[in-house]
What does this fold into?
Amino acid sequence: MIAGLFIISLGIFVLGVLLPLAGTWQDRRIFRAGSHLCTIAGSILLGALSLFLFLTGNDIAWTAYQPVAGFSLSFVIDRLSAFFLLLISVVSICVALYAAEYNEHLEGGLRRNLLSGCTNLFILSMVLVVASANTFSFLVFWELMAGCSFLLVMYDYSRATTRKAGLFYFVMTHLSTLFVLLGIVLLFSSTGSFVLAPAGVSPVSAIAFVALLIGFSIKAGIIPFHKWLPYAHPASPTPISALMSSVMLKIAVYGLLRFLLDVFSPDVWWGILILIMGTTTAVLGIIYALKEYDIKAMLAYSSIENTGIIFMGIGLYVIFSSYQLFDLALISLLSALFHTLNHAIFKSLLFLTAGSVVHATHTRDIEQMGGLIHRMPYTAGLFFVGALAIAALPPLNGFASEVLLFISFFSSIAVADPLFKVLLFLCLGLFALTSALSAACFVKAFGSVFLALPRSPESGRAEEVPFLMLLGPALLASACIVLGLFAAQIFFIAGFTVPMPDMFLVGLLLLAMLVLTFAVLFFTASRDVRVTDTWGCGTLSQQPAMEYSGHGFSEPIDIIFSTVYRTKMKNERTFFDQKNCIFAEGKAEIRLIKVFEEYLYLPVARASYATAETVSRFQSGCLDTYLLYVFCAVIAVIVFLGWLA
Amino acid sequence: MIDPALIQSVIRILFAVVIVTAAYIISTRNLISLVSVYAVQSLTLVFMALALWSLEGVTVLLGIAVVTFVSKVLVIPYFIASIQERIRIRRDIEFHFLSPTTSLLLSMALILFIYIALANILEGTPARESLFFFGAVIGLSLMLMGMMVTFSRKRAITKVLGYLSMENGVLLFGMFVTELPFIIEFLIIIDLVILVILTTILTVGLDSTLEEYHQRLHRFHLVGDTEDGP
It folds into this structure.
């Protein structure tokens, strides 16, 4: 019966794909609304059955299609899959509510139908990746997910920046698929099967793990494979940015966890590798986020940081498992999973509210915003909840998951090896730094966007968004609060006992402190009313240019991390005479170096291009040359059979 | 009844003849003698098939001998010889990648290389000591020598003869190593393909390099200009 419900939910998603496509020739809202309704209905059904399976621990299995023996599209939903399906469902419902209104304000006419249909296909592909029972199904739907997301990124293809972002994303996502494919092929060569079953300990499985880790890291945005995120997220329509950042990245996390838990027998160095990758990503991600002034790019970098935190949890899980510290391993794994859920919730909330702000102000530059709390109070309130959650302030959900990870780190005193202890405490220090910087980043974001005076005419004219664009984020904000306040109870219901404080009590305590502070201030403050203008250095009124800008706020942090933000100075001068004595004019430029792009991506791209040029010489168009290749190939086969086979 | 040892000796001599003809094809510049040498090589294969037939009594070998004799000793050489009468070029002096001397030296190395490779593959099996091992070595060598001719000569006609020689290598290898009925089928199809190619060449122009032949083919189809024809 449960399997039947799962198939029905898939069917509803398929209907959501077909409905707007059937009306492609008609630019009518009804088709798109129908599609979004299908997303919501399918997600509710899927969420309900995932929740049921997660709480009861029952599994369902189903083979949809088996063309030949060994190759089948099979699905299984166990607790891990159910957890991720629940995550997909919750975010999809809220995003669909938001998109039902947001998409109507987009340019593109009939393309909006395709956007709605393709969004459903994207969600469906993610559901099927998570539900895949074997590596063959996993790869098929992984590629479907990559293709759909590329099309969605390219929605506004008429812009050069979108085309560049799309191309960048296309290359990176297929690089990810290539590594995942390599890992799966290596596993198949080792086990002879596509089933997600233990592969044993061998050099081949270690290489397969590295290949899969790289593949999933590219998709999850782990540094140095992260560069597609700050391009693709700003270029995509807001609901797509939200889905990609909060759900698609988590599918990569799911892939890594699924292979680690079901297929591999991890060694301790695997955990160290994942932990170091996670820590580097978390620290650098938030440092780059602090420097961003494009609100969506800033959120993209923040996603990179949070994925790094999730990887830290997974790395700790592997390390503690290797040392047979299973209780600590479980806490680490739970912290990673809980942070996965929480990040999905608050990041989609932040993306949706940021999309509302961009929709109202027609700019993504936070320095052009300001004063929106008076014009968009509900959006400001919702963004504030998201910012509190991501800054890991109690009693919201971001704090609940990060505190678990802190507990795991503090418990690493149980590891006997002193070198590991040093490494773990170093990572703990960097994690604490990340949390602090994250708070600073969102203070800057909220302050620049919502407080003070508008810094552009568009911000001054901004209006609150329609109801549906508030409803989706409001549900997510509620989830942030509930998941934070009742974190301990949720773990208890799920069947886990974790050493974390009762967040509800913490919340009550904080509320009491707030009330007390307010009461003290209220009763002790002077009752004399004095009405006067703030002294404005002699000017008659406050001007936007006098405000504390985002640049100003982050300047001290910029100075501290100036070694990370490397700059390049460029001088161009022209002279009237040939001996360069009489200066005519000049231009000086100081710009931030895109370190990974300029020192990693571009050299690799240039080397690939040079290799392609060299290889293209082999295709000379001369028959004799081709015959020579055949001759050489035959000789190579004989050598292989005679000496190597 | 003929003594099997004598037949085996004859087959060994025929192996030597095949190698000599292959070496001649790879090194000669004379187009007239090329066809005759090819016919001699094919005839050697016919004798070899007959010798094997007398040794093993498999009638398919007799079929191979007949088909080979008709197609490769009579029809194809006749076809090519009749074409050669029409063209004036008697020598092929244009080479690609390898000169005849280098090709010859490379062929010697190639035979040695294949001998060692097959010896490694068949090490410890009864086939290692038998006549079939030499058949396989000579067959593979002939195939690769034919391939060398196809890419080292520029004239289309020499390439075709290289290809035919290569196919003789496949036949030889098949006679000694693999299943026969399949090989017969294969041979017939390949021979038909070659006949088609030869006919096309006859139509458009034989006295040319392959590049020129392509150009002529294009011109022939595009404007119907036949002044460049044979």
Observations:
- DSSP finds 23 helices and four strands in chain A.
- Chain A has a mean pLDDT of 90.
- Chain A touches chain B at residues 623-625, 627-628, 630-631, 634-635, 638-639, 641-643 (CB under 8 Å).
